[in-house]
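Hi everyone, sorry if this is the wrong subforum. Our group has a chain we'd like a structural model of before ordering constructs, and none of us has done structure prediction before. Sequence below.
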Amino acid sequence: MTLIAGLPIVTATEMRAVEDQAIAAGRSVDDLMAQAGAGVADIVAQQANGRRVLVICGPGNNGGDGYVAACRLAEAGLSVRVAAIAAPRTDAAIRARAAWHGPVEALADAAPAPVLVDCLFGTGLTRAIDPAIAAALVRLVAAAEISIAVDLPSGVASDDGMLLGAVPAFDRTVALGAVKLSHLLQPSASLCGMIDVVDLGLDLPGTTTVLAPPVLGPPPPAAHKFSRGMVAVISGAMAGAGLLAAIAALRSGAGYVTVLGGEGGGPHALVHRPLSATTLAEPRIGALVIGPGLGRDEVARAKLADALSTAHKLLIDGDALHLVSVDQLATRRVPMVLTPHAGEFAALFGPGVGSKIDRTGDAARRSGAVVVFKGADTVIADPKGRVIVAEPGSSWLSTAGTGDVLAGAIAAMLASGLPPIDAAAAGVWLHAAAARRCAGAFIADDLAFALSAVRGGV
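Answer:
Right subforum, don't worry. Here is the predicted structure as tokens:
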């Protein structure tokens, strides 16, 4: 989970642009291919641990990388075979093929090997590969003890995580030069396995990055409960949801957490107060949470209106995302974080177009808020164009109440004084790390409890 944390993520178009920039500055395609192939060979050799290797090559530069890797592996003393679907078609790939002095088998006839390296197609694929090629790839991956994709598993679209046909699951993927969007977006992310990156020394854009662990530290010696941040949670029709958010805020480091208008319950550290103009006007509230278990009736609408009328930083989640409008959000000048799942996102912003990253960025610009589009893949965006994408989390998070826990964790970060997108990123990281600490079949209460240990370690 830490090999790619904090690294830039690029689209296929951005990757081509930075490669062109490097070539314009004096580097050759052959130089880039040699560096990429050598990096692939180093990783494959480490994983092979002396086992026989089969490298399968396509006709483009991804195939050229494969020929370079095969040469390096053979020079290192490994038993290497190469299979291909066609002769190389680019100048650099032709030269790389000429440097490979062993035979090249037809992919359709290739026998399996313990280590399979997929260099058929890399970044930029936009259409399904030939079914016969896909079937051969599936067969060889299934028979291998370890399978490694180079840049992306063949059959994956580069920028949106979509599958362009049958794609097998790989144990590792070696990203060339930079992390790509489909390494992190589902469904392709689940097929990439562990991600390694071969640094090609390229000048990468930095507006989209992989989620990294926050640097938070313990409270300073002079800290007190209010300096650590006060979180207020507005209770709703399902009071348990608000309690989960409140407990999560406490266990994420907030110094004071109050539930407004609830029914009591929770640890004694929680403060219960009525929901009123007076309690909402408390100037020490650093983040106000509205939405978990709120309901969608007129009472809920009135509570939402009261929350929106305050000058507090807002965390808007759950039912409140079905009741608020984009126009209401866009006119508010106080920081906000929205935490929708797919259904809530569609209710507020519509279906949208493009990848999940495209839609999250557009939603942030339209609303003026930081948007955490959560799910099997989680994307965070702010109105200025910064995007953070989380690595895949525990599938056990697919249980009731875990979104309420996330809301509380982010609210604690927001109340502590972090900028909204950094608060959102820190909360998402804490939430995922807490899930990794929990045993299988955990419940949201377990997840909230685990936040204390996680927060104490960062």
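For your construct planning: The two ends are 16 Å apart (CA to CA). Residues 286 and 415 are 4 Å apart (CA to CA).
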